[in-house]
Write a structure and sequence with these properties.
The complex is a heterotrimer of chains A (402), B (307) and C (79).
Chain A (H helix, E strand, L loop, with lengths): L4 H10 L8 E3 L2 H11 L3 E5 L6 H4 L2 E4 L2 H13 L10 E5 L3 E12 L4 E7 L6 H7 L5 E4 L9 H8 L5 H20 L2 E12 L4 E3 L2 E5 L8 H7 L14 H10 L6 E7 L4 E6 L1 H13 L6 E6 L4 H12 L6 E6 L7 H14 L4 H4 E5 L5 H10 L4 E2 L5 H15 L1
Parallel strand pairs in A: 12-14, 14-15, 15-16
Antiparallel strand pairs in A: 1-4, 2-3, 2-4, 5-6, 5-8, 6-7, 8-9, 8-10, 11-13
Chain B lengths: L9 E5 L4 H12 L5 E6 L7 E2 L2 E4 L2 H8 L5 E4 L3 H13 L4 E4 L6 H14 L2 E3 L5 E4 L3 E3 L6 H7 L2 E8 L2 H13 L4 E6 L10 H10 L5 E6 L5 H12 L5 E5 L26 H10 L3 E3 L5 H12 L3
Parallel strand pairs in B: 1-2, 1-5, 2-4, 5-6, 6-7, 10-11, 10-12, 12-13, 13-14
Antiparallel strand pairs in B: 3-4, 8-9, 8-11
Helix pairs in contact in B: 3-4, 7-8, 8-9
Chain C lengths: L1 E3 L3 E5 L7 H10 L5 E4 L2 E4 L12 H5 L5 E5 L5 E2 L1
Antiparallel strand pairs in C: 1-2, 2-5, 3-4, 5-6
Classes of the chains: A alpha+beta (402), B alpha/beta (307), C alpha+beta (79).
């Protein structure tokens, strides 16, 4: 879960890393008050969870409180990449002598966190790594032993930074590494980390991403920051169709029938699970099909839940037919899913044989499942029909119908 | 032979009284020669039995009851308790831990893996279905009930490594139908950080005489395929590899996760396109469809066998 | 008493529907709540019938022949 900049800065500040005297508001008048309190030139920054805000005009400079109010009004009204801003951050315009970079991420290969530091900040760290690799220091650190400061000292020193800058940077990088681990972040980044004219350091911008699975153990922090449980902060906002999918999945606790993502095609998909649904979605597209949705069935859901998902997909405008396909199941039962999707058709007044383009789920209780499908005349396939072949048949049927 | 487990492997099930764990225990006991499930652990349930397997409060009690070191553990406890359960297993001398549980935060996984490395133990998973040696033994829910697993898996020369549990069975079933059995199939888990990656299992398959080729299932997200490509190149592996890459559609949808927690395109290296390129550079064939895998394997085997 | 849903039907012989012990037992054993103990009377919960997982626990819990589970998709075949 991604944090807004004003939240990320607050997290950084709580970790004891110096930040500017910024303020956050959703109101232009209040932006003016914050600028007055700061007493000097300020920057007004749009608070959106998307890149490119500078280019889009979401960052404005103001010399006076009046100007700050005017800019805040404009920025608050400005949508960036389809995202309405959460508010604006009012920041003193700092006199920066040099911009640095400090970040921490997970390394899935070493299976440890890695701290990254560069004396070249303010730009994308991947670009620095490509153009000036000797200016980027990296160091893994233990996730079991307490983190000692020498690790940060090594990584900062490896980029050629010495003198008082080194000694001031070490505690900042160490604190960032500790907050990364303590808060279950998947990304903790201060960029730029500014050195001011007087030699002190201050975080000028921060990016933080918390692992969704760990949100439960950071309730207090999230509550403090005003992050609601319902805020998923996905790369794109859930559509009403996707929200309806979540409701289906929440009907009971048996298995999964949800994880719906909306697409704009005409072939509805009732597919599962993890790897199988990825394979099937690709297979439909590579056979020239146009999926109406992505979804996942798994963990042996109830008939009710499978029916709920199938109904949702069947009722989506533009959907002609559904394809019910899974890789070989060992936990989810073929007969239960068959009952669910047929029930969905019947309850909506459709003929299952007409609406279900293909049913390809081999595995647990398949014999019982095939009896049900036979009874309703639905075309089914066993394990001798590959996932791709099943997808092709479904796409052909849609083509024939159009 | 096989890798990781064989007919003599003893293991326990942590969280054995849970609904899924009860089924899993039954399946393992029934499959092949019958797994040596020497105990189960659920705190507070000392003295019970699950399908004849004695239940203990602690791993130490299970080890003491067994009277000898125990080789492995299947961990199926809820995410909040998994790290403790795995630490307990490792500190009681268990060397092979299969973690079934999903939705464990990365920090916990990394801690478990780091402790395992310090103690010379190996973790498979989390978010995996375990290991199967066809007709011999299975450790975990892989393949489902014994009679279903018997339909999909058969003994033979192919090692299978997969980030998806279900696709491990789908691919193995396709191989079996084409007359290509498996030496060992390992479901390694779908998370961003896992105990054993492709490259970490390759040396075991390399050393296993029965194994003549490898099939892997992979997805977008992470750098595990690049690591495999590097390993294969640096070690001049004797084993031909065929890969199947799912989730190609995700390349157009950065920042979104589908299927497994570990599948998310965050940078260029994470994309299916980039991974396919890395694998191909290392001489790994990437199949367009699963049904092509058997013939690709046959062709590679024919190429390598002395005429 | 007999109730049918789309895929599954259940019949309980009238002679035992008033058996309080059986009513309690059926409610307890069914994993998908097809049976309810209605004050000592066996009741069939129609909306749960199609959730039946064919586990036979209700058959094992009742005197032989008194409870029948019918697969309506198989011409009413008895489980």
């Amino acid at each position: 879960m991604r944090f807004f900049e004003y939240e990320a800065r607050e997290i950084v500040k709580r970790a004891g890393i110096p930040v500017t005297d910024f303020g956050f508001t959703t109101d232009a008048g209040e932006a003016r008050a914050i600028a007055e309190r700061i007493g000097g030139p300020v920057v007004i920054k749009s608070q959106v969870l998307t890149g490119g805000r500078m280019k889009a005009g979401g960052v404005q400079f103001a010399d006076t409180p009046e100007e700050a109010e005017a800019h805040a009004r404009d920025v608050l009204a400005l949508e960036i990449n389809g995202h309405a801003p959460r508010g604006v951050l009012v920041d003193p315009k700092a006199e920066v002598a040099q911009e640095y970079y400090a970040g921490v991420v997970w390394d899935g290969i070493r299976k440890q966190p890695v701290m990254i530091f560069s004396p070249v900040g303010g730009i994308d760290i991947e670009q620095v790594a490509e153009e000036q690799p000797d200016k980027v220091g990296r160091r893994h650190f233990s996730n079991i032993l307490p983190l000692s400061e020498f690790a940060a000292k090594e990584v900062v020193a490896s980029t050629g930074v010495t003198g008082s800058a080194l000694n001031k940077l070490v505690p900042i990088v160490t604190k960032l590494a500790r907050l990364f681990v303590a808060h279950d972040m998947t990304l903790a980044e201060i960029n730029p980390l500014g050195r001011l004219a007087d030699g002190s350091f201050v975080a000028l911008d921060a990016h933080m991403d918390m692992e969704n699975e760990a949100r439960g153990r950071h309730r207090a922090l999230l509550e403090d920051l005003g992050v609601g449980d319902e805020e998923t902060r996905q790369a794109r906002e859930a559509t009403p169709f996707e929200l309806a999918g979540e409701e289906v999945d929440a009907m009971d606790h048996r298995g999964v029938a949800g994880n719906v993502t909306e697409f704009d095609g005409n072939l509805g998909l009732v597919i599962g699970a993890g790897g199988g649904s990825l394979t099937l979605f690709d297979a439909v597209r590579s056979s020239g099909g146009d999926p109406a949705n992505y979804c996942e069935i798994g963990g042996n859901p109830s008939v009710r839940k499978a029916a709920g998902l199938a109904k949702l997909v069947l009722q989506k405008p533009g959907v002609d037919k559904i394809a019910v396909m899974m890789s070989i199941v060992s936990n989810t039962r073929v007969d239960i899913v068959a009952r669910g999707v047929i029930k969905a058709c019947l309850e909506l007044g459709f003929d299952p044989a007409e609406k279900i383009a293909i049913f390809r789920i081999p595995g647990a209780w398949e014999d019982e499942g095939y009896k049900i499908l036979d009874r309703y005349g639905v075309e089914y396939a066993d394990r001798s029909v590959s996932l791709h072949e099943a997808a092709r048949r479904a796409v052909e049927k849609i083509g024939a119908a159009a | 032979m096989s890798i990781l487990v064989d007919a003599t492997t003893t293991f326990i099930v942590q969280g054995i009284t849970g609904r899924e764990a009860v089924n899993l225990t039954r399946e393992c006991l029934d499959y092949g020669a019958g797994a040596k499930v020497v105990g189960g652990v659920t705190p507070g349930r000392l003295g019970r039995e699950v399908h004849g397997v004695p239940v203990f409060d602690t791993v130490a009690q299970a080890v003491q009851h067994h009277g000898a070191p125990i080789d492995g553990s299947v961990v199926t406890v809820p995410p909040a308790f998994t790290k403790d359960a795995v630490f307990e297993a490792i500190e009681n001398g268990i060397k092979l831990i299969v973690i079934v549980t999903e939705r464990i935060p990365r920090r916990d996984v990394a801690q478990m893996v780091e402790l395992a490395q310090l103690r010379g133990a190996r973790i498979i998973g989390p978010n995996c279905l375990g290991i199967i040696v066809p007709d011999v033994v299975k450790m975990g829910g892989i393949g489902g009930p014994a009679k279903d697993a018997a339909k999909s898996y058969a003994p033979g020369p192919v090692g299978v490594i997969s980030r998806s549990g279900g696709m491990t069975t789908e691919m193995s079933s396709t191989l079996t139908a084409a007359g290509l059995g498996q030496s060992t199939a390992v479901s390694i888990g779908g998370d961003a950080i896992i105990g054993s990656s492709y490259a970490e299992l390759m040396p075991l398959f390399e050393a296993d005489e029965q194994t003549q080729a490898i099939v892997i299932y992979t997805e977008p997200g992470g750098r595990m395929e690049a690591e495999l490509a590097r390993w294969v190149t640096e070690n001049q592996s004797r084993l031909p590899i065929v890969a199947f890459m799912a989730g190609r559609f995700m390349d157009e949808m950065p920042g979104m996760s589908f299927g497994h927690a570990g599948t998310i395109v965050e940078g260029k290296e994470d994309t299916a396109t980039e991974k396919i390129a890395r694998l191909a550079e290392a001489g790994i064939t990437v199949a367009e469809e699963i049904s092509q895998i058997p013939e690709l394997i046959q062709a590679k085997l024919a190429e390598r066998s002395p005429a | 008493m007999r109730k049918d849903a789309t895929f599954i039907g259940v019949e309980v012989t009238d002679a035992v529907t008033g058996d309080a012990a059986l009513a309690a037992k059926l409610e307890e054993v069914c994993p998908v709540d097809i049976y309810a103990d209605a004050g000592g009377q066996v009741d069939i919960v129609e909306e749960n019938l199609d959730e039946c997982v064919l586990c036979r626990l209700c058959l094992d819990a009742s005197p032989e022949g008194t409870v029948r589970v019918l697969k309506l998709y198989e011409g009413g075949a008895v489980l």
